[in-house]
Amino acid sequence: EIVLTQSPGTLSLSPGERATLSCRASQSVSRSYLAWYQQKPGQAPRLLIFGASTRATGIPNKFSGSGSGTDFTLTISRLEPEDFAVYFCQQYGSSDSITFGQGTRLEIK
Amino acid sequence: EVQLVESGGALVQPGRSLRLSCVASGFTFDEYAMHWVRQAPGKGLEWVSGLSWNSATIVYADSVKGRFTISRDNARNSLYLQVDSLRAEDTAFYYCVRDRNLAAVGLFDYWGQGTLVTVSS
Fold first, then answer.
1. What is the 3-state secondary structure (H, E, C) of chain B?
2. By Cβ atoms counted within 10 A, which residue in A24, B39, B100, B108 is the most buried?
3. Would you call B106 and A88 a contact, using CB atoms and an 8 Å cutoff?
4. Contact (CB<8Å) A94/B112
């Protein structure tokens, strides 16, 4: 099983700043089958990015994903108050490879 | 608008059973694989189980294999999870989730609001 490790655990930034979240896999992620989700308090997660870099429907272009192999990044440019949430990375592709990272909490500084 | 509405969560004693249900609307249900994903309060996400559009492929996480059974009724636009031999560590919100594909590859594009299962004596 591939283990996903997200860093940092908590990221404290101010509105208007740029956020860079990391997700590292214990083995290479096949075909860049890596997704990112956003979860706000009391809500279900929302798909942001899949295929490492493709934005899901309705996701603004301030969210961007990059990376391949074992190292992936989610970047959020120009943070707005509604962006402060918990972000999870996830690998997918087959039943023995559906795992999530532990999450990064993005909080207002 | 895609909607997934779960029900069936409850407070139950260890060793007991529950049946979780999810009713889907706003899309053609039998064109998508479906899954259950759970989240213990204040914790991370854990994929539980999934099945393809026609139930030909059914898969489980090792942590629930042999205790949980996933099924679907395409005529009723419904997904189910039979949870048996419940343990304290099964306490979580259980989300009904749509896969972006026919096959259960695990890319989750729509989530329900979740139903809470609490296992405690």
1. CCEEEEECCCEECCCCCEEEEEEEECCCHHHCCEEEEEECCCCCEEEEEEECCCCCCEEECCCCCCCEEEEEEHHHCEEEEEECCCCHHHCEEEEEEEECCCCCCCCEEEECCCEEEEECC
2. B108
3. no
4. no
